[in-house]
């Protein structure tokens, strides 16, 4: 695998010289190792991944909570089938449902019809959960995933907004986590978490997040990082308040015991 460092906006007054870290997957590289190192795939660039603060469920520690069970009861009129994307019929009806969802949920221009088609027809992801209404037998939502021998990545979800009362969004992600647990996967990766509205991804026992140098199961640490995201701050590992609260001011211990090892 190769790492690339793409420059971002520099700030000489604070001595900040940021880079976005990309990874190129080569023929013999393990997807498990790449995800384990904190990377997620770029949907438009096959075999290219980006480093981010992402969330996963350690399925060895996952059990249904009372809230999870409530979601299952509230959405019991929904069921799903897991289909290889190579066998999935991506048609005009599917595209319309996805576009309607994106126009309501995202900033204009975030997802075009071409972008959505790339998710379903490209080579980055390999399975889709198809949710249907058990009474009408009509499609209610689609959750595109990447599934390997050891993990599931819940990548992109689209659903009919008429099912909001049934908590369809929560049901879809929960269904994927439960499936991964039953299928004896080690992890379920749920995507990034930089805003408060993304904290729904932590509503599962066994939740962990990648903080740049390790996977942490301290959700108070994650909430603090989300809370201060818009504040002017130092680099995380130079943030004395962060180090004092979560790592006993011990930067040396972090540097000696954590991090992603690479060969140069």
Question: Which features would summarize this protein structure in a list?
Answer:
264 residues, alpha+beta, Aminopeptidase, 2 domains, eight-stranded mixed sheet, four-stranded antiparallel sheet, 8 helices, 12 strands, 29% helix, globular
Strand order across the largest sheet: 6-7-8-9-10-5-11-12
What's the CATH topology name of the largest domain? Aminopeptidase
> Main β-sheet, in a few words?
8 strands, mixed
Count of individual domains = 2
The overall strand count is: 12
What is the assembly state of the chains in this entry?
Answer: single chain
Principal-axes geometry comes out as globular
Fourth CATH level, the homologous superfamily of the largest domain: Gcn5-related N-acetyltransferase (GNAT)
Assign the CATH class of the largest domain: Alpha Beta
Strand content: 25-35%
Rg of Cα set: 19 Å
CATH architecture of the largest domain: 3-Layer(aba) Sandwich
Helix tally equals: 8
Please tell me the overall pLDDT.
Answer: 92
Name the poorly predicted regions.
none
Structural class: alpha+beta
Distance between the termini: 11 Å
Share of residues in helices: 25-40%
Order of SSEs: EEHEEEHEHHEEEHEEEHHH
How would you characterize this protein structure?
The chain has 264 residues and is α+β, with helices and mostly antiparallel strands. It has two domains: 1-51, no CATH class; 54-210, Aminopeptidase (3-Layer(aba) Sandwich), CATH 3.40.630. Helices cover 29% and strands 26% of the residues. The protein is built from eight helices and twelve strands. The protein has an eight-stranded mixed sheet with strand order 6-7-8-9-10-5-11-12. The chain starts with a strand and ends in a 7-residue tail after the last helix.
């Amino acid at each position: 695998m190769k790492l690339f460092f793409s420059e971002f906006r520099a700030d000489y007054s604070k001595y900040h010289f940021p880079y976005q870290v990309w990874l190129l997957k080569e023929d013999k590289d393990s997807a498990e190792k790449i995800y384990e190192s904190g990377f997620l795939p770029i949907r438009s660039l096959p075999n290219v991944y980006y480093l981010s603060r992402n969330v996963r469920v350690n399925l060895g520690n996952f059990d249904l909570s009372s809230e999870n069970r409530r979601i299952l009861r509230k959405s019991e009129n929904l069921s799903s089938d897991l289909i290889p994307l190579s066998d999935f019929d991506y048609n005009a009806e599917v595209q319309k449902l996805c576009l309607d969802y994106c126009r309501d949920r995202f900033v204009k221009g975030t997802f075009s019809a071409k972008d959505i088609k790339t998710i379903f027809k490209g080579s980055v992801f390999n399975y889709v959960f198809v949710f249907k209404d058990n009474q009408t037998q009509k499609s209610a939502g689609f959750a595109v995933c990447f599934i390997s021998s050891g993990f599931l990545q819940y990548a992109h979800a689209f659903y009919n907004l008429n099912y909001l009362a049934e908590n369809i969004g929560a049901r879809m992600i929960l269904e994927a986590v439960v499936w991964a647990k039953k299928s004896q996967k080690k992890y379920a990766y749920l995507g990034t978490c930089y805003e408060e509205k993304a904290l729904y991804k932590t509503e599962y026992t066994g939740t962990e997040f990648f903080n740049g140098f390790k996977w942490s199961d301290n959700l108070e640490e994650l909430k603090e990082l989300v809370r201060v995201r818009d504040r002017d701050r130092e680099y995380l590992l130079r943030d004395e308040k962060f180090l004092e609260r979560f790592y006993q001011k011990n930067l040396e211990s972090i540097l000696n015991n954590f991090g992603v090892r690479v060969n140069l």
